[in-house]
Write a structure and sequence with these properties.
It contains 35 helices and no strands. The protein has 797 residues and is mainly α. Among the domains are: 235 residues, Alpha Horseshoe (Serine Threonine Protein Phosphatase 5, Tetratricopeptide repeat), CATH 1.25.40; 45 residues; 106 residues, Alpha Horseshoe (Serine Threonine Protein Phosphatase 5, Tetratricopeptide repeat); 127 residues, Serine Threonine Protein Phosphatase 5, Tetratricopeptide repeat (Alpha Horseshoe), CATH 1.25.40.180. It is globular, with a radius of gyration of 32 Å. One of its GO terms (molecular function) is RNA cap binding.
Length: 797
């Protein structure tokens, strides 16, 4: 007893010392990290005094925590680019106090740059290059060695047999650093810099821009040109050069320490050779700079910089960086955007709204999940209730006015954003201001937009609420009441084929009949196809599907959960009825007929049918392009279904591929284990061989599954593109023979939906380019359709 008590007491006495010994360094490291990450945020002291104090703290901790400090500084250079001048100044102060540390930091940054390029982290690599260039201003890096590095970057444009996107990135990395360091480099190395810019100009003149129309949010160049990003940046840098490299927006805290920094010894960058191109390199795709506002749109307060002023680039770049750093925390992100340094010199709300919509509408896809932008804008409206909602309303009005020339994919995102936004503000909107859409054809962009927005609002609310919130004059655009259309209801004609059988089938379902019993009952349903085609009469009976599915859906119409349960319960019956391709198509037709007034129910049930393998992805694609769906072909929900179907197919292939890769890794590990130390070598070898044999069999099976899934995936894209080509060709021929202009609303929608398929699934489609080119997108194809394919190919050239 006494022994135990003694040990307890000694433990209690010694524990705190033990903990303090192990945790003290960790506490200091955490404190260092916190100090470094928070410098430059709101403080009672000035930024300069905070930087000087922090440099002193870090200098004192260098002997014990040098590696940790290096790691943190390299991380913030990569991950907090919006505070770049703050951290370059801090590194400058440390270099002035400890030359060796400065050298080690530069080496660590170069190592990190090489790693990010190898790992295809190109956006982070841009920030690292920019950081290194700003270190020239802080007298850490010698200007000639920075110019030499830029020359190596630009030399990539002379490489042969490389994709254009590779050269683009290296040119962008140089140009986007010049607002920070251009003045300093020109003062020290003007001849070399002129030569460098001439090389860049030559490259920009010869690069091809076939891809640009595919990436533009608006097809019209007025009121704001939609410029390709490198062309826009080049114009901004040219203007900066003309203004003698004077810009008025970048925070430059190092100026306050000029007397200290100019005394510091500088480091030369080690020679940097860009890593050679490899086939698995994934370069950033080009993009078009989104423009929605200019100085005339923000009449009060500070003037908005022009689209070709470098200040516009710097502001937008910093706002993008803030979103990139904080997008997971909408409240922090909104607060950081609104406390942007220098906000009193610019119409900040206009810049923020333009940047957020620029990201939301970015093609092929936004950098972050769509719903994040809605949440962020709501948060901004809460923080600035007196000013930001007005700017947002102005932006919405502008986009509504320009719907005629807006890309269909962007219209989809606008519908999703606007309906979600309205749902957070009691669906309040000045609908009467949009009364001009009521006099237009329902298929025109404006009435179509309002109709789709109201339909999405109904998904987030209920039908009567939508009826109540819009003026009575908008009744034509209000979505239908989402009730089912039961073909064999009480008011139906009793002479309808199969009418009598629905009662029998309905009773059987109510009496909890088994799948086998239902199939026996359905045998009595006559087959309208039997006389026409005896061979297929037994396999495909459209009336059987109609009678059973209409009855089943009617009994389960109360909710999606009831419908899911019904489909699960009678899975075997449905699989039997949809044994053929015609059966799969017909089940989708019946589902559409039953729920034609409830697009959301159609979407979720089609999804369920694919998941339960009652229909396959190709059947869904064929159904969407079938004549029966022509009436709804341009509706938003149809394309939601198609994209969801493609994504499901892609995920299926990825899942099997992952299983195969894991099995291969397992086998490799098993083979490496074949080095027994004990005497039971024979037993171990036998067990090992058995396991290897099982793994090899598993790999073989998975290999077959992957090939089968990829074949199905390729077939799905072939079906989709073939159907697009058929529809568009018919339209073009019809217009040509009638002497009508091809550019109808339907044609714009259809051709842009084709572009959307290419853009949204570009990574997968690139695997099948050869097949597409040989079978579908041949030289004989009409140039209107072929152009879309050529624009897509140009994206990664």
């Amino acid at each position: 007893m006494s022994r135990r008590r003694h040990s307890d007491e000694s433990d209690a006495g010694s524990q705190p010392h033990k903990r303090r010994r192990t945790s003290e360094p960790i506490e200091i490291e955490d404190r260092l990290e916190s100090l470094i990450c928070r410098v430059g945020e709101k403080s009672t002291s000035s930024l300069e005094s905070n930087l000087e104090g922090l440099a002193g703290v870090l200098e004192a901790d260098l002997p014990n925590y040098k590696n940790k400090i290096l790691r943190i500084l390299c991380a913030v250079a990569r991950l907090l680019p919006e505070k770049l001048p703050v951290y370059t100044t801090l590194v400058g102060l440390l270099n002035a106090r400890n030359y060796n540390f400065g050298g080690e930091f530069v080496e660590a940054m170069i190592r990190q740059l090489k790693e990010t390029l190898k790992s295809n982290l190109y956006s982070e690599a841009v920030y690292l290059v920019r950081f290194l260039s700003d270190l020239v201003n802080c007298h850490v890096i010698a200007a000639p060695s920075m110019v030499a590095m830029f020359e190596n970057f630009v030399s990539v444009t002379q490489e042969e047999d490389i994709p254009q996107v590779r050269s683009d990135w290296y040119v962008y990395a140089v140009l986007s650093s010049l607002p920070w360091v251009g003045k300093e480099l020109y003062e020290k190395k003007d001849v070399e810099m002129d030569r460098l810019l001439n090389q860049i100009e030559g490259y920009l003149k010869r690069r091809q821009k076939t891809h640009v129309p595919m990436l533009q949010v608006w097809t019209a160049e007025k009121p704001h040109p939609q410029e390709e990003y490198l062309d826009c940046l080049w114009a901004q840098v040219q203007k900066l050069k003309k203004d003698r490299w004077q810009e008025r927006h970048i925070l430059r805290p190092y100026i306050a320490f000029d007397s200290v920094l100019c005394e510091a010894l500088q480091h030369n960058l080690p020679p940097f050779t860009p890593p050679a191109h490899s086939d698995d390199a994934v370069y950033p795709m080009p993009h078009v700079v989104f423009r929605m506002f200019d100085y005339t749109d923000a009449p009060e307060g500070p003037v908005m910089p022009g689209s070709h002023s470098v200040e516009r680039f710097v502001i937008e770049e910093n706002l993008h960086c803030i979103i990139k750093s904080h997008w997971r925390e909408r409240k922090t992100c909104a607060a950081q955007l609104l406390s942007y340094p220098g906000k009193n010199k610019i119409p900040l709300n206009y810049h923020i709204v333009e940047v957020i919509f620029g990201e939301l509408f970015q093609l092929p896809g936004p950098p972050h999940i769509d719903v994040m932008y809605t949440a962020l804008l709501i948060e901004l409206c809460k923080l600035q209730p007196g000013s930001l909602p007005q700017v947002l309303a102005q932006a919405t009005e502008m986009m509504y006015m320009r719907l005629d020339t807006m890309n269909t994919t962007c219209v989809d995102r606008l519908i999703n954003w606007f309906s979600h936004h309205l749902s957070n503000f009691q669906f309040r909107w000045s609908w009467d201001d949009w009364a001009d859409c009521l006099t237009q054809d329902i298929e025109k962009p404006k009435p179509k937009f309002v109709k789709e927005v109201l339909e999405k609002c109904m998904r987030l609310s209920y039908h009567q609420r939508i009826v109540d919130i819009v003026p009575p004059s908008f009744s034509a655009l209000i979505p239908a009441n989402p009730v089912c259309s039961y073909k064999y209801g009480e008011e139906a004609d009793s002479s309808l084929p199969g009418f009598a059988m629905t009662t029998i089938v309905g009773n059987a379902i109510k009496n909890r009949a088994s799948n086998e019993e239902i199939l026996i009952v359905l045998k009595d349903v006559p087959n309208p196809n039997q006389d026409d085609d005896d061979d297929e009469g037994d396999g495909f009976n459209p009336l059987k599907i109609e009678v059973f599915l209409q009855t089943l859906l009617h009994l389960a119409a109360k909710s999606s959960s009831h419908s899911f349960s019904a489909l699960a319960k009678f899975h075997e019956v449905l699989k039997t009825l949809t044994d053929s391709d015609e059966g799969k198509l017909h089940i989708l037709r019946v589902l559409y007929d039953f729920w034609r007034n409830h697009p959301q129910m159609i979407s979720v049930l089609v999804d369920k049918l694919i998941r339960t393998q009652i229909v396959d992805c190709a059947a869904v694609a064929n159904w969407i392009f079938s004549p029966e769906m022509a009436h709804d072909f341009t509706r938003f929900y149809v394309w939601e279904i198609l994209h969801s179907t493609i994504r499901k197919m892609n995920k299926h292939v990825q899942k099997i591929q992952k299983e195969l890769d894991e099995a291969k890794v397992k086998l490799e590990k098993q083979q490496n284990k074949k080095q027994p130390d004990s005497g039971d070598e024979e037993d171990m070898e036998k067990n090992s061989e058995d396991e290897e044999g099982q793994l090899e069999e598993q790999i073989e099976r998975l290999q077959e599954k992957v090939e089968s899934a990829q074949s199905e995936q390729k077939n799905l894209f072939l079906v989709i593109f073939q159907r697009f080509i058929m529809l568009l060709t018919e339209h073009l021929v019809r217009c040509e023979t009638s002497g009508v202009d091809i550019n109808t609303t339907w044609y714009k929608n259809c051709i842009e939906r084709l572009q959307q398929i290419f853009l949204m699934h570009h990574v997968i489609i690139q695997q099948y380019m050869g097949t597409l080119e040989n079978l579908l997108f041949t030289a004989e194809l009409d140039h209107h359709i072929l152009t879309v394919y050529q624009q897509f190919c140009a994206l990664q050239l």
